[in-house]
Write a structure and sequence with these properties.
Elements (H helix, E strand, L loop, with lengths): L6 E5 L4 H12 L3 E6 L2 H14 L4 E5 L5 H15 L4 E4 L14 H29 L3 E6 L12 H21 L4 E8 L5 H8 L5 H7 L8 H12 L10 E4 L10
Helix pairs in contact: 1-2, 1-8, 3-4, 4-5
The chain binds nicotinamide-adenine-dinucleotide (NAD).
Length: 255
């Protein structure tokens, strides 16, 4: 077990990629704290983890863009487990809208959740890691749009580009405390967001798959393995980097 005796807090752990990471970290021996906006989805994951692993689990409802909720959930996690060794910032929202008339309210909502939320959790949890003096691991979830443009994603791209840069800043400032801060940029992973975009005709699966050298879209398990690597001591000399996990999409200059 690669994460035995570790405590991991995963935002957006109620479904999709966050739930996949939480399940895998629990299977690898970590006790997990899952945060999301929706208790119903959290309860489902809690049940799965209790039935399928020996991990302890705490689920907490909270909005990552609210400083009060961030502090409350971090305090509750520390009250139960005494510390947080691993933080995964996975909560996020996406939005497709032409930039020319993107409502400012929508811009702010996406930036608030994806960028501010990541900043707030890094700061709140990072502070406890520094005070404790035992190092730590932080994994932020970025995106293909942190590296290349996709039409109609201005707010999402700005937020995820920001998270990539923020990751480097925290990595630089916290390397002396043995805290590694990295990000994972998933390609097209089959989750509710992506299913919804396919249903609305925003994503066209055949077109996407034609561009992916691996010949398929990703599954949440494809992200969970790299997340365990970045959470484990195998990555102790890796910091400030972005691991692109996209089946080769960004490498493909051909189609
Ligand atoms: N699915 C993909 O193809 C893909 C690709 C690249 C990046 N990502 C990123 O991965 C992350 C997870 O995506 P997913 O596809 O699993 O999405 P999802 O919609 O299935 O899950 C998102 C999770 O975040 C939570 N959440 C949303 N807003 C929140 C808030 N304000 N406070 C607390 N929790 C909140 C939701 O409750 C849910 O648990 C996101 O950051 C997304 O941008 C996804």
């Amino acid at each position: 077990m690669r994460l035995a005796n570790k405590i991991a807090l995963i935002t957006g752990g109620g479904r999709g990629i966050g739930a996949g990471i939480a399940r895998r970290m629990a299977q690898e021996g970590a006790d997990v704290i899952l945060v999301s906006r929706t208790m119903a989805e959290l309860v489902k994951q809690e049940e799965w983890i209790r039935n399928n692993t020996s991990a302890d689990v705490l689920v907490l409802e909270g909005d990552v863009s609210s400083p009060a909720d961030v502090n409350r959930t971090v305090d509750a996690a520390i009250a139960k487990f005494g510390r947080i060794d691993i933080l995964v910032n996975c909560a996020g929202v996406s939005l497709a809208h032409p930039s020319v008339d993107l409502p400012f309210e929508d811009w702010k909502r996406v930036l608030n959740i994806n960028l501010d939320g990541t900043f707030l959790y890094c700061q709140a949890v990072g502070k406890t890691m520094i005070e404790r003096g035992q190092g730590g691991k932080i994994i932020n979830i970025t995106s293909l749009v942190s590296h290349a443009a996709i039409p109609q994603r201005a707010a999402y791209a700005a937020s995820k580009g920001g998270v990539k840069q923020l990751t480097q800043n925290f990595a630089l400032e916290w390397a002396p405390y043995n805290i590694q801060v990295n990000s994972i940029s998933p390609g097209f992973i089959v989750t509710e967001i992506v299913r919804d975009f396919i249903a609305k005709g925003i994503h066209k699966p055949e077109k996407m798959i034609a561009r992916i050298p691996a010949g398929r879209m990703g599954e949440v398990e494809d992200i969970a393995g790299p997340a365990v690597f970045l959470a484990s001591s195998d990555s102790d000399y890796v910091t400030g980097t972005t691991l692109i996990v996209d089946g080769g999409f960004l490498t493909n200059g051909y189609v």
